[in-house]
Design brief:
Layout (H helix, E strand, L loop, with lengths): L2 E12 L6 E12 L3 E5 L6 H8 L7 E6 L2 E2 L4 H5 L2 E4 L11 H11 L4 H14 L15 H13 L5 E5 L7 H16 L3 E6 L2 H4 L5 E6 L2 E6 L1 H6 L4 E8 L14 E2 L4 E7 L3 H14 L2 E8 L2 H9 L4 H4 L28 E4 L1
Parallel strand pairs: 3-8, 3-9, 6-7, 7-8
Antiparallel strand pairs: 1-2, 1-4, 4-5, 9-10, 11-13, 11-14, 12-13, 14-15
């Protein structure tokens, strides 16, 4: 397998003494040609700091970054030529229309003018931004500006494509179009590093996941392996009525996931009893809705970063890669519980 990005033992800190922050603490991961690798983590987990080091904007304290066989720590300018980046903040293109901006980026990367006119048309159509293609960028919405930045990144993509929160401000319909282009990019042989905190959307397109938390790798592997430790488990989610917190049954630990919503991961053999409990809470008005479903990738991710996941619970805090949820590349065992996936409201 052709390794396009290889990161080993990456360390980067900011500040000193009591103000010292370990942005990256021993990060090791890789991205191969033809793969979409999702870099997941909440705000402040170290994702963007890692990206800045990959593209040469920040120098690591220690560790190595290799892009296409080139050491990015000693030859950052050379390695940067092998990376196409969509940064978290849009590139200012004031005065340029999206079509012209896309064409110019491709020309700067050495593509012929005719080829770039064709490529710009292709991307504009694929992302459904035709009505704004020739409108000055300062007059388009944030979502169209974000899609323009994405198209600029894909105008003439390098072997490694890094996308930092590409769906920010993008409407749900065009998000799907964007995900399709990401998948096609990988299928064409590029390595894609997708930086995000949106677990549900990521699950649709990634081949592998790397979960960062406080600068450390908590787990990495396929989406199926991340959920694998929860095989045979179910998630019960309830929306409580205002001022009426539900009284969960003994032995059930619920995690708040919103102002009036909480969830618990439970064994499938308790499903019938918990459905009966939830139905009773619904009748009394303590809750407004409940849903029982198989454990999702989002459930596993939340439990991983909060320390409730089986892998996280057994991980050594001094070993950033102590919970590598690597192969087998298999699907999660499904539950046969008839109540799974059902939602009930008052």
């Amino acid at each position: 397998m052709n390794t396009v990005l290889d990161v080993r033992g990456l360390h980067k800190h900011f500040g000193k003494g009591a103000h010292r922050v370990e942005a990256n603490a021993g990060v090791t991961m890789a991205a191969h040609a033809g793969q979409v690798v999702g870099l997941l983590g909440h705000n402040g987990s170290g994702k963007t700091t890692m990206v800045n080091q990959i593209v040469g904007l920040t120098r690591p304290d220690s560790g190595t970054i290799t892009v296409g066989g080139i050491d990015a720590t000693t030859h950052p300018a050379l390695a940067r030529r092998l990376v196409s980046l969509q940064a978290q903040a849009n590139v200012p293109i004031t005065g340029l229309a999206p079509r012209r901006a896309i064409e110019l980026v491709g020309r700067m990367r050495g593509a012929p003018a005719r080829a770039m006119r064709s490529r710009a048309r292709e991307l504009i159509e694929a992302l459904d931004i035709g009505p704004w293609a020739d409108v000055a960028s300062q007059k388009v919405s944030g979502g169209i500006a974000r899609l323009t930045a994405f198209a600029m990144c894909l105008a003439r993509p390098a072997p490694l494509v890094v996308l930092d929160e590409p769906t920010n401000d993008v409407d749900p319909v065009r998000r799907r179009l964007l995900w399709t282009q990401i998948r096609r990019l990988a299928d064409a042989g590029h390595a894609v590093l997708l930086v995000t905190h949106n677990v549900r959307e990521t699950e649709r397109v990634v081949d592998r996941l790397v979960v960062l938390n406080h600068g450390q790798v908590l787990a990495q592997g396929t989406p199926a392996t991340l959920v694998h430790d929860w095989a045979g488990m179910l998630t019960l989610e309830v929306d409580q009525a205002p001022g009426q917190p539900p009284h969960w049954p003994a032995g059930i630990t619920a995690t708040p996931v919103g102002d009036h919503r909480s969830r618990a991961v439970v064994a499938s053999d308790r499903a019938a009893a918990l459905v009966a409990w939830a139905a009773d809470e619904l009748r009394t008005g303590a809750i407004e809705r409940y849903e029982l479903s198989p454990v999702s990738l989002e459930d596993a991710y939340i439990d991983l970063v909060t320390g409730h996941h089986p892998a996280a619970a057994g991980a050594d805090a001094d070993q950033p890669d102590a919970a590598p949820l690597d192969e087998p590349d298999t699907t999660t065992e499904s539950t046969n519980d008839p109540a799974a996936g059902q939602e009930h409201t008052a």
